[in-house]
Amino acid sequence: MTSANSSSRSRYPAGSLAFPHRGLLGLAGLAPHEILFLLDEAEQWVELNRQPTKRVDHLRGLTIINAFYENSTRTLLSFEIAGKRLGADVVNMSVGQSSVKKGETLIDTAMTLNAMRADAIVIRHASSGAVRLIAEKVDCPVLNAGDGQHEHPTQGLLDALTIKRAKGEFVGLKVVICGDILHSRVARSNILALTALGADVRVCAPPALMPADIERMRVTPYHDFDAALKDADVVMMLRLQNERMTGQFIPSPREYRHLYGLSVDRLARAAGDAIVMHPGPMNRGVEIDSNVADLPGRSLITTQVEMGVAMRMACLEVLTRKAREVPGWAQPREDKGNWA
Amino acid sequence: MKQPALTIINGLIVGREGAPVAGTIRCEDDRIVGIGADVVPQEGDRVEDARGKLIAPGLVDLGVFAIDKPALHFGGITRAALMPDQNPPLDRSSTVRYAAQSGKPDLWVHPLAAATRGLEGSDMAEIALMRDAGAKAVATGRQWIADSGTMLRLLRYCAMLGMTVIAHAEDSGLTGNAVATASEMSTRLGLPSAPVEAEALAVARDIALAEMAGAKLHFRQITTRGALDLIRAAQKRGVAVTAGVTPAHFMLSDTALADFRTFCRFSPPLRREDDRKAVIEAIGDGTISVIASGHDPRGPEDKRLPFADAEPGMAGAETLLPLTMNLVRDEVIDMATAFRLLAANPAGLLGVDAGALEVGLQADIAIIDADRPWIVSSDKMAAAAGNTPFDGQGVQGRALALWKGGLKVG
Description:
The structure holds two protein chains of two kinds.
Chain A: H1 32-49, E1 63-68, H2 74-85, E2 89-94, H3 103-115, E3 120-125, H4 130-135, E4 142-147, H5 153-167, E5 174-178, H6 185-196, E6 200-204, E7 220-222, H7 225-229, E8 234-237, H8 253-260, H9 264-267, E9 275-277, H10 290-293, H11 301-319
Parallel strand pairs in A: 1-2, 1-3, 3-4, 5-6, 5-8, 6-7, 8-9
Helix pairs in contact in A: 1-5, 1-11, 2-11, 5-6, 5-11
Chain B: E1 6-13, E2 21-28, E3 31-36, E4 46-49, E5 54-57, E6 59-64, H1 69-74, E7 77-82, H2 93-101, E8 108-114, H3 127-132, E9 137-139, H4 148-161, E10 165-167, H5 172-175, E11 180-181, H6 184-189, E12 193-194, H7 197-213, E13 217-219, H8 225-236, E14 241-245, H9 247-251, H10 273-285, E15 290-291, H11 300-303, H12 320-329, H13 335-350, E16 365-375, E17 394-404, E18 407-408
Parallel strand pairs in B: 1-4, 1-5, 6-7, 7-8, 8-9, 9-10, 10-13, 11-12, 13-14, 14-15
Antiparallel strand pairs in B: 1-2, 2-3, 5-16, 16-17, 17-18
Helix pairs in contact in B: 4-7, 7-8
């Protein structure tokens, strides 16, 4: 088990060995110390973002392209702000999903972006694995900003950072992730990050929204939200991903709220100092009541947004170190295929 | 012009039973006329020396999606049953007649008639007209017929015509838009998935309907333990139900989907390891009686896509023989059984007089080196496209020469 409290940087391998990956396609390939390294790197950017002047020039002269094949507001904005605060030239490319459904277009777009000599590409796509497909065609670091139902690694990292700052410790922490686990890339990345760091993760959903063999990801599945909440330290609520559902998965939002909505009464089953999280956007009155979402001191939903910018700054800064010839990172590495 | 008789000497002849035996085989016109140790070439014969290798029947590939002659010949395949999922579908006598002629003279294409118009699963197609145009069996295509009433009427009608119905077995209500088996792998990759029971449910229903109809039913690909148990039980009580599989499902499990390898996108999808083992057991005990390639060459425009958007299927004709030889080397089956699965059984299902080396049958013959090693390379395949999940893999088994109706084709 790895403790988040021992945050001295000396515990990480030197230079690029601390994070020996070309890009960030998911958290599945990351070792615990690599996750912790990114969390610690983000801390400095949290502090910077709270200063009146929020800009540095680490990435001056670099071009970052945000290629979003799926609608997004907060993630796109977060990456854009992150890139700009690091001094990069940031270009947003919003593409309607319908125009890129076919592969040649997707591959061609990747090759076009590559030919434009982007220094980092941030991609969101509606299909699981699409980001990997593009990453194989480009030379620069690729960051996954969410691919289908697969992963949303920076969300997993920013959530871990939020928890770390609130709780200090991951080992033994009881975390409940409740909602549409089946369709959630956020849930997958959070599960990977939090279990790697030693948390006790419970996932809760009605049967139709619980993926097969989820316990093989070292989590405990629940259908009873009240039971899952018992003594929980962190309650992470997820939105129903109606846009990814084919067919009826629940009888109605009203009934869903009855069984899985987080109310003040229900939150009382968790630990007295349990924090509440939600990756947004929220369906207030469905998975979470407004008086919980806005609960001072307990709800960290806006903190997650704040950590998101810092975390994305950390990822962009770390992944461009090789190209920027940062000492300790510029040496050649035999890791062409190491995408993580 | 009439060609001289063909005599193949110095080979090990693969029969329906037992180990291959040394002998000679002699053919006149398009038929086998002599077989055994005492057969000798006659004056004027074309004599071929098998040099101690196997003399086997040309393979009969039950259910290809493309008439890809170079790949089929490379794989030792002399006859291919063409799936009705063409553009347009094989749901009319004219398209069936055209398809039946399309491979001649060096490849026999046996069209499978679409069970329903447009393969839409609702209205029965003109099956008797298609039979008379050359269709050898009826197939539901890539889809399961969801309407039980339609399926029962189809089975009854085909029973009347004496035609086997070749069915796809996945309950579409469960599969929906799934591209993977519900498992740890699909969960980790975030791929739309369906439970393995989708196959067993479809099989259970179709067996019940076939039993009611007294029809002959063949499941083109059975890939799960539950479905195989149902078929095994039905066969024991005398239902005319058979099952096939492609090598992908006895060679690979869903762990091959890691990194979103679209060359491993199949329908039905790759299963968990226990199901893969169940398929091998079913081949060993005879529950599965056909191994086919499912040959479906796909170019990059169909495969270089996100996994869920890619088309299912693999270029399988070239690897059908060597991958089946793995089962012989692993002593799951013997050599004679391998060729029953690859030739005699599919020929019997189609009702064609081929698939075995016997006097009077068509002279579809392959000389095969069952041990010859080679490397599968997607860049160098004879197939129209190289979408194989076995790229770079070393295999053993190669057709060295091939005759179709006594005519040398490879």
